[in-house]
Amino acid sequence: MMSEKAEESTEERRMVAIAVRPCEGFDAVALYAKIKAEITSQPEYKLKWDDECKIEDGRIRVSFSISSEADFDEEVMEVLEMMEDEVARQEIIFQCVME
After folding, report:
1. At the top level of its lineage, which domain of life is listed (predicted)?
2. What are the Cα distances from residue 68, in Å, to 54, 56, 64, 77?
């Protein structure tokens, strides 16, 4: 029986870098804390956000990893779109699958 740690290390993960522009008047650091708290995905996909984000020209730049089995667009990006009162725009900067 494979340990959970060994199983996790062999799982293919998708690494995604995104940029999020907060709506006017919203603090980027506070918004990132809210994003991390509210966008958690399905437990089996083991979504992991960076501990901290980088703020560049008012945009939140951050990356996350999620199981390659997950539809990250549905699990993360669509949820960001629903935060329209706080998120003005979001974009995918880079993505790849890691073995």
Report:
1. Eukaryota
2. 25, 28, 12, 15
pTM to 2 decimal places: 0.85
Q: Looking at the chain, how many residues does it have?
A: 99
Exposure string (b/e) for 6-30, b if CB count within 10 Å is 16 or more?
eeeeeeebbbbebbbbbeeeeebee
Which pLDDT score is estimated for 22?
98
Q: 60, 99 in Cβ contact below 8 A?
A: no
Which token pair is 24?
């006017």
Interacting residues of 95 by C-beta distance below 8 A, sequence separation 6+: 14, 15, 16, 17, 72
Q: Nearest-CA neighbor of 22 among 9, 13, 31? A: 31
* Cα dihedral value 26, 32, 37, 41, nearest 10: 120
Is the pLDDT at 62 greater than 60? The verdict is yes
